[in-house]
Write a structure and sequence with these properties.
The chain has one domain (2-265): TIM Barrel (Alpha-Beta Barrel), CATH 3.20.20.370. It is globular. Helix 3 crosses helix 4 (139-148). Strands 1, 2, 5, 6, 7, 8, 9, 10 and 11 form a 9-stranded mixed sheet that branches. The protein has a two-stranded antiparallel ribbon with strand order 3-4. It is an alpha/beta fold. It is built from 8 helices and 11 strands.
Length: 271
């Protein structure tokens, strides 16, 4: 059996319900899960490396407040809680640029704990999984995340950033060529990049997904809800491609769509 985790990044207090509904209603109606990497208290001034505003602020609508917590959008929270197919994953704290590429253990801990508290205050269950903005974590962040979460989902692991006690485990992972590994209780999952992106052709995306399924027991497929609405209007061909891809995965007898939490509660081996 091959396991696929759909990880959609950047849900936040400004995310329109209709965007998530358009993307994932077909999946939810089949009783299948979608993992939403959710920003606890989004920064309204969040910018990309280019200095441009983050795409997930496309519906900010001129809000002047410096941040907006999930609890401040009760309609969105109610919608997410009313649809148990959505699994809320903690995605940073404010999603400031590279906010967890931080050398201060004290500041990292503050951000992690604040993010957890804000999601709990919104009414969501405690997340067992953490996703860092831009998949970038300092040595201090990696250590702090492993002390608080059962799963870390990221793009890659850099040897020079790992806590020193992790080095032997990482060496064994590299020797085996394994994409996923474990430190203590924490599962460390890598992913093959954002395959479901408007920056890739549909054929390249499909080739990448097929390759991952053929070579991995567990595949984390990353996408971003706002990329399907980046101009403020739906990109219909891209949305159709997402639906076709998810429909194909759901119909394969050798593929099961799961949550990050399933890896822990059902003790699914990562290799």
């Amino acid at each position: 059996m091959h396991y696929v985790i759909i990880r959609d990044d950047d849900t936040n207090a400004f995310t329109p319900i209709e965007c998530l509904e358009r993307l994932y209603r077909p999946v939810l109606d089949r009783g299948l899960p979608v993992n939403l990497a959710t920003i606890p208290q989004v920064s309204t001034a969040a910018k990309m490396a280019s200095g441009q505003p983050e795409g997930f602020l496309v519906k900010k609508n001129g809000t002047s407040a410096p941040t907006m917590a999930m609890a401040e959008n009760p309609k969105l929270v109610s919608y997410l809680l009313a649809n148990p197919g959505y699994h809320i994953v903690q995605h940073g704290c404010h999603h400031d640029y590279l906010e967890f590429d931080c050398p201060s253990a004290t500041e990292v801990s503050r951000r992690l704990d604040l993010g957890t508290r804000l999601l709990l205050e919104a009414g969501f269950p405690r997340s067992e999984t953490f996703v860092a903005p831009y998949d970038k974590l300092s040595r201090q962040s990696l250590k702090a995340v492993s002390e608080r979460f059962d799963v870390l989902s990221t793009g890659w692991f850099e040897f020079r950033r790992l806590p020193y006690s992790w080095w032997p485990h990482y060496a064994r992972k590299r020797f085996r060529g394994a994409p996923h590994w474990k430190i203590g209780r924490t599962l460390l999952l890598s992913h093959p990049g954002c395959l479901l992106s408007y920056q890739r052709s549909f054929s390249r995306a499909l080739q990448g997904i097929v390759h991952c399924l053929e070579h991995n027991r567990i595949t984390v497929l990353v996408t971003h809800w706002w990329e399907y609405f980046r101009s403020g209007e739906p990109d219909d061909p891209f949305i159709d491609f997402l639906h076709e891809t998810l429909r194909h995965l759901s119909k394969r007898s050798d593929v099961q769509l799961i949550t990050f939490g399933d890896l822990v509660s059902k003790r699914i081996p990562i290799e």
